[in-house]
UniProtKB/TrEMBL annotation:
InterPro entries in UniProt: BP-dep_ABC_trans_perm, MetI-like, MetI-like_sf
Domain annotation ABC transmembrane type-1: ranges: 69-261
Lineage, uppermost ranks: Bacteria, Bacillati, Bacillota, Bacilli, Bacillales
Keywords for this protein: Cell membrane, Membrane, Sugar transport, Transmembrane, Transmembrane helix, Transport
Full protein name: ABC transporter permease
Major place of residence: membrane
Sequence intervals crossing the membrane: 12-31, 73-92, 104-125, 137-160, 181-203, 243-261
Organism from which the protein derives: Novibacillus thermophilus
Membrane topology: Multi-pass membrane protein
Matching Pfam families: BPD_transp_1
Localization, UniProt: Cell membrane
Length: 276
């Protein structure tokens, strides 16, 4: 029994170290590359021989990077906000109302998550072209709302399921209509679930490459992911040092946001895990 316990602990520790290596080593290598000079970038050294901050300085003083950052913030904030609101209304409808076709509609929304986004791009591109929305931020925002909606709706429904129906009935007795109940009572106490949906939507749009690269073609309208690739990578240049430095810089907003809001994010995701 003792030997089995020791063996289990060794396997468990080895598994943690192995997982930690695959998770954290790419992050370490990104920092390592960002501190290297152009001549040293392709040398397989674990530590830079001559550490330099010139890559960070060049990235911060690059007007294009700041423009990409501004564009991404604009798209991510709007798409996250509207996706959260639509998910909240849909989740409340599925949780508190009973009507014909409710389950079918829920299943339809969830099934949309099954299709690969690269396949959906074919139809979305044709649709946006027909409506004249190519090279327009509205095409990106609408696409991101659609992609966040299944997970966001399920998250919000699970959160609303935990709210007692007696709370709504009491408000009705006091004379509150449905609109007032939703906006003055339900939504304020559902902030954790809404924040978790908003974070999910923000990160989705912030990290997107495929749709941002396809639907937006003007250089001045590009968001971060395609902007970084097209600015630092190309047929005649591979500026890995500045690319890694810029990647670190643009990841800071999402990292800070998650650190500040992680309590609400975890609470929102686990709200429907236990019923009692």
């Amino acid at each position: 029994m003792f030997e089995n316990t020791i063996g289990f602990k060794l396997v468990f520790i080895f598994s943690l170290v192995l997982i930690g290596f695959f998770v954290f080593f790419p992050l370490y290598w990104m920092f390592n590359t960002a501190l290297k000079t152009p001549e040293e970038v392709f040398l397989p050294t674990l530590f830079p021989n001559n550490p330099t901050l010139s890559n960070f300085t060049s990235a911060l003083t690059d007007g294009l990077l700041l423009n990409y950052l501004k564009n991404s913030l604009f798209v991510a904030i709007l798409s996250s906000f509207f996706a959260t609101m639509v998910s909240a209304y849909a989740g409340y409808s599925f949780s508190k109302f009973r009507y014909r076709g409710r389950k079918t509609f829920m299943v339809s929304i969830l099934i949309s998550q099954v299709f690969p986004h690269a396949v959906l791009l074919l139809s979305i591109y044709v649709m946006m072209q027909a409506f004249g929305l190519l090279d327009n931020y509205l095409s990106l925002i609408l696409s991101f709302i659609v992609f966040v909606l299944p997970v966001g709706t399920l998250t919000m429904k699970a959160y609303f399921d935990q709210l007692p129906d007696a709370l709504i009935e009491s408000a009705k007795i006091d004379g509150a209509n449905q609109c007032r109940i939703i906006h003055k009572i339900i939504f304020p106490i559902s902030i954790p679930g809404m924040i978790s949906t908003a974070i999910y939507g923000f990160v989705w749009s912030w990290n997107d490459l495929l749709y941002s690269l396809t639907l937006i073609t003007s250089p001045e309208k590009r968001t971060l992911a395609p902007g970084l690739i097209l600015n630092y990578m190309g047929e005649f240049q591979q500026n890995w040092g500045e690319m890694m430095a810029a990647s670190i810089i643009v990841s800071l907003p999402v990292t800070v946001m998650f650190i500040l809001l992680q309590r609400f994010f975890i609470q929102g995701l686990t709200s429907g895990a236990v019923k009692g």
